Amino acid sequence: MKTTLQLPFQLKGFLELGDAVLITDSNHIILDVNDTYQKVTGFEKSKIIGVKAGFIKSNLTNKETYCSMKDSLKQQIPWSGIFVNRKKSGELWHSSITITPFKIGNELYYIGIFRALEQLEEGLYISEDKKIEVQRELLKVLAISCEIRDPGTEEHLIRVQALTEKLLKAYNEKNNLQLEPNYMNNVIHSSILHDIGKAGMPEGILYKPGALSIYERKIIEMHPLTGADILNKMSKEINYDFIKSMEVAENIILYHHEKWDGTGYPFQLKGEQIPLEARVVSIVDVFDALTTCRPYKDSWSEEKALAFIDENKGKHFDPLIAETFISLF
Ligand SMILES: [Fe+2]
């Protein structure tokens, strides 16, 4: 790869700017950085000159961000956006960057000017970590408030979340699925929402001891649809994109009572038509319900509940996920 490794004198003035500045050649090889860049990132100039500018990528920046950057730069148009990079210490560095292409003779250079977002006024920017934290808290409040009538709810939700995490991670590892960490976090944190639709169910039916009539069962079987409706109404009211992207939560709510053999509800989906996240939460939910004592039913022992899951793999449950679940105990 051709690089001049020489910063033309015409560009030296950029290094005097107060913000962090990085200058590369047309192949994104670093030619120089200023003092602020070194101070903010912790990387010494002498160690990074000649290195590709992408070395501080954290992989938390959206792919679309990189695509839009490449598109603009290809057309030699300046580009601005938000990068999440990593400092030398490993700490994340959220910054707004403007990259300006600069032609001198036949050579093209890129001037990258960073501004740390932590310094911007509060309210303009929310870091990825903060977003995840806020989302998690909101989901928990929503789940608990929808099931507030049941005194054991919070403990049930915490157990479902913890078991979903164990099961999903074990299933991912065992089958080398290489699921995205973001997706897995989303499933784990959304699992507590599976029964929010119970908020719309009459208590007399929900906690009725003994068998339900056909009509009572029909009403209970509406809870996935009611839950998806509650979720959609809530996310419409909240004006943040990260709350609006609720597909995983919606799948869990809608499909956690579908069965592998197509005899579940509300859509009678079969096998892999049922989204993975719902197949996972389904096993965890049944196991927790069986092993918990409620006013209207006794609890089963762990062994008996595991035997039930084993007997029903390939019928009620995804057989591979059921096997992984049993192997956790
Ligand atoms: Fe349910």
From TrEMBL:
<feature type="domain" description="PAS">
    <location>
        <begin position="19"/>
        <end position="50"/>
    </location>
</feature>
<dbReference type="Pfam" id="PF13487">
    <property type="entry name" value="HD_5"/>
</dbReference>
<dbReference type="InterPro" id="IPR037522">
    <property type="entry name" value="HD_GYP_dom"/>
</dbReference>
<dbReference type="InterPro" id="IPR052020">
    <property type="entry name" value="Cyclic_di-GMP/3'3'-cGAMP_PDE"/>
</dbReference>
<dbReference type="Pfam" id="PF13426">
    <property type="entry name" value="PAS_9"/>
</dbReference>
<feature type="domain" description="HD-GYP">
    <location>
        <begin position="131"/>
        <end position="329"/>
    </location>
</feature>
<dbReference type="InterPro" id="IPR035965">
    <property type="entry name" value="PAS-like_dom_sf"/>
</dbReference>
<dbReference type="InterPro" id="IPR000014">
    <property type="entry name" value="PAS"/>
</dbReference>
<keyword id="KW-0378">Hydrolase</keyword>
<dbReference type="InterPro" id="IPR003607">
    <property type="entry name" value="HD/PDEase_dom"/>
</dbReference>
<dbReference type="GO" id="GO:0071111">
    <property type="term" value="F:cyclic-guanylate-specific phosphodiesterase activity"/>
</dbReference>
<protein>
    <submittedName>
        <fullName>Cyclic di-GMP phosphodiesterase response regulator RpfG</fullName>
        <ecNumber>3.1.4.52</ecNumber>
    </submittedName>
</protein>
